[in-house]
Amino acid sequence: MMxxxxxxxxxxxxxxxxxxxxxxxxxxxxxxxQLPESxxxxxHLEVLDINIRHNWGSRTELPRGLSNLVNLRHFLAFExxxxxxxxxxxxxxxxxxxxxxxxNKKEFSIAQxxxxxxxxxxxxxxxxxxxxxxxxxxxxxxKDKVHLxxxxxxxxxxxxxxxSHTVVLEGLQPCTTIKCLRIDGHRGIAPKxxxxxxxxxxLQSLHLEGCQNWVALPPIEKLQFLRELHLVRLxxxxxVIIGPLxxxxxxxxxxxxxxxxxxxxxxxxxxxxxxALPVSKTSTDLDISNAGSIxxxxxxxxxxxxxxxxxxxxxxxxxxxxxxEKLLAFHNLTTLEELEITxxxxxxxxxxNSLQQLTILKRLTLSNCPKVFSSFHTGYSxxxxxxxxxxxxxxxxxxxxxxxxVGLTNLSSLRIAHCDKTLHIDExxxxxxxxxxxxxxxxKLRINCTLDFDNVDRQMRGFTDEQQEALQxxxxxxxxxxxxxxxxxxLPSELHRLSSLQHLIIKNCKSIKSLPEKGLPGSLKLLxxxxxxxxxxxxxxxxxxxxxxxxxxxxxxxxxxxxxxxxGSRWYMQASETYLKPQSALSD
Length: 588
Description:
Blueprint: E1 2-3, H1 8-11, E2 21-24, E3 47-49, E4 74-76, H2 79-82, E5 99-101, E6 121-126, H3 134-138, E7 148-154, H4 162-170, E8 180-184, E9 205-209, E10 228-232, E11 262-268, E12 284-291, E13 295-303, E14 310-315, E15 322-323, E16 336-342, E17 349-350, E18 363-367, E19 388-392, H5 398-405, E20 413-417, H6 420-423, H7 433-436, E21 444-447, H8 465-472, E22 479-483, E23 503-507, E24 526-530, H9 534-540, E25 548-552, E26 579-580
Parallel strand pairs: 1-2, 2-3, 3-4, 5-6, 6-7, 7-8, 8-9, 9-10, 10-11, 11-12, 14-16, 15-17, 16-18, 18-19, 19-20, 20-21, 22-23, 23-24, 24-25
Antiparallel strand pairs: 12-13, 13-14, 25-26
Organism: Eragrostis curvula
Protein name: R13L1/DRL21-like LRR repeat region domain-containing protein
Pfam family, one: LRR_R13L1-DRL21
């Protein structure tokens, strides 16, 4: 039966003694709704629905005799209302009890849970500081509740008796089939059923928070089905042992964690050791905050875009100083295709030699790690499988970059941005024939946004003969950008020999007055000139064979368009900027 109003019919509910299902809807939500006492006389009722969507809030008052509904199986209501059922133990057929709060009253004692053997799904037990000993705790019979899948055990602040906490938790051992376990605010030591006598082999989620006196963790390495691990404010834990990830043919007892994908470690200020990462070869999110010497870092292992391989993203934070084999388990990253390390201003050591274990690595990004190349020495190299290398704010020197590029014959994209040591005029040693000869697959050379020389020595007026010769070796180069070269007066004179070049971008190079005498490559499809000289703007209008021409500059600059670059094409100028492109590309 459904009632949109709580009028006279509600008062006469007791007459419906054979009612099995009752859904009550309040006409509007208030803070002082009260379920009528007559409901408690529906002794055959199996489902009582006063869900929050029906305007029954957490402050609703329940009839004191609600436990008389001895056949009740489902109580659909706000979680807080579940904690208000006095003498809930009488409802022996109840299948869901969202929460139970232990109080110092018989009708709210933990013994009320002893008869609720049909409970399934999730159960949250609060106020465990009101349980005095192990015997009382065992009266909850959690070990016998075989249908429960999720369990929360919570001690409130102010309930600080560590000795009683220890024995009480020993008596709250759940069934071995439990899948999700959370323990909050426990001030004792870890129970035997979670350490030496561990038997919860079906755990998929383990959340331990505020267990400040625990010195040992469950044997995480044995939890083959574990998907989530949250460890928060475990002040006395010194290490997390994850264990090997793959079963060994020589040792059948060796365990693995094939399903772990979420690890959260917060507020371990005294901890010294964390597990080598990743803890799983599957997709993993790891969030570390205030953890010993590491401080804070974010670690995410996910599927690479459009691939079956993995991508690892590490945001190190201000205190991360080292990524060695103890912290980063390179041998567990054999399927890694993308590695990104960012936001680590103190990172001064990276196990460069161990990167060779990443045999299918295709993309490497190092960003905002100004000290990371201080540990890079002659003889180190990157995996030859690398296709995309992105270095930003890393202060790699030109000599180091030359070493890095050795053997990268598959490299198709290289970006160097805001690396002042590299871009100093005396350190452009990576633009040599010896280096460029190996970059046979390079399509995009990005020095602060493709081939851009932002922050290069401002007195660089042109490319040296060696640099021009080296550029000619980049036969696959398709995109070239020159940015913010205030003193550069001449483009590479042999630019026309870059037979694969399709995109040329020149930005904020006001000293360049003309294009090369020998012209631009015939393959060029896009020319973009921004914040440059009027003389260069005028020359660019005569370039033939382009599909796209962008001329951007101050609106005060007036240009006369008199020779369309492409015969038979119609071009137009946009008022906000000098912007040209084929009329055929416009929609009607």
